[in-house]
Design a protein that fits this description.
- The chain contains five helices and six strands.
- By secondary structure, the chain is an alpha+beta fold.
- A six-stranded mixed sheet has the order 1-3-4-5-6-2.
- Strand 3 (92-102) and strand 4 (105-116) form a beta hairpin.
- The N and C termini lie far apart (73 Å).
- 21% of the residues are buried.
Amino acid sequence: MTDVRLDTPPTPTPTPTPEQRQGPAAPSHLALWQRWMDMWNGDRAAADDILAPSLRVHLPEVGMPPADSIRTPRQFTDWIALFRGSYRGDARIATTLGPFAADGHLIGRWIFRGVWEGGRPQGASAPPGTPITLRGADILRVDESGRIAEYWLSDDLLDVYSQLGADIPAGGPAR
C-alpha cells in the first residue's frame, strides 16, 4: 500500500498545446454539433441559437441552390425545409463519425434516411414511398461567439438521383 500525504498539493494539469486540443470534440462542440443535427431533423428554432447572423455556405454544384442565396439563419432553415419537404416527417439524419474539432472547425460524417414522398428532384421515376439513404460530411467553422459562421457540404446526392431514377442534372445550381 502506498502512503498518501494529504498536505501535498495536487500536481497541476498542464495546459494542452493546440495540437493536443485537436481530435475528438470538446463537450461544448458536441453540444453545438447535436444542435446542428437537431436543426437538420426539423428543429428550425435551433438556427437562431447556433448560426451566425451572416453565414457563408459552400455547396456542391449539382442539385443545389446557389450558395450565395443562403446567407442568413432564415434562408438556411428555408433550404432545410425545402429538402425535408420531399420526405416523410420521420426522416432522420444521424452522426456516423465524429464530430472532430480542429482549428475552430467541427467535422462530422452523417447519414440521412427517409422515405421519399415526391417533389425534388424533378423527373424522378421512383414511386412515392421509396426509401432513400444519403451520406455526407459537414465542415463547420465556429466563430468567436461559438456560432457557425461557415459551412461546407460534401454529400452523395447523386446516389439519391440514382435511387429515385432521376436524371442527373448537366451541372450547375438547381433552379
